[in-house]
Amino acid sequence: MVFFFSVTTPFGIALGIALSSVYKENSPSSLITVGLLNASSAGLLIYMALVDIPPSRFHGA
Question: Is residue 5 included in any domain, yes or no?
Answer without folding.
Answer: no
